[in-house]
Design a protein that fits this description.
about 200 residues, mainly beta, two-stranded antiparallel ribbon, 3 helices, about 10% helix
Length: about 200
Amino acid sequence: MFGNNPFAQAGWYNPLNRCSINGSPWRPPSRDPPTFGALPAPDVNPASVLRFEFSSFNPDVLNCIVTGPGNRKFFDITTPTPNVTLIAKPGETIGVINWQEHNYLEATGILSRQRTRDFLKLSSDQRYRTMLVASSGKSYAWIPRPSGIYLYSAEPHDSMQLARLSEDPARARVLLQITTEAVQAGIFELSIIAAILLYSGRNLD
């Protein structure tokens, strides 16, 4: 159920962003994805999935809106200067990404100030990125597959598929599909931030 934008050591290739720092997608060194336990097939249908859309690109994901169920607007993503991206809920800025030599981000009540490379750590074999949720101490892994970038729990004996990111270049949009279990686990906002970073075309490391 749950489009290909694989990892690059210096960031992510983004065909929607002509200023992407990488000229072509980076491919994992192996055709087989990394495993955390026994991963389910990527087309397994989770019981309940919510769909969110990054659209109205101006010209890319760093200036867009995020809408969800009922076409409700959940976030405004704006980049008023080349070095600052703001993430806002209606009437309230909740997160800031500072694009510098060493990129930093923070989100009120969600993420303490930290480097982007620490928030989404590239594995030593460059095949996936891990995301640690401080509030729970649990780790998750963003894994590129032919049909999208999948989020799995990276905890031992727990490899639940939680979300998928995919892109639709023809309609200039990025889609996030996320399970209700993931939302209840407190990783909805983190997945929004991860999507912005992964499709930004900027250097994350």
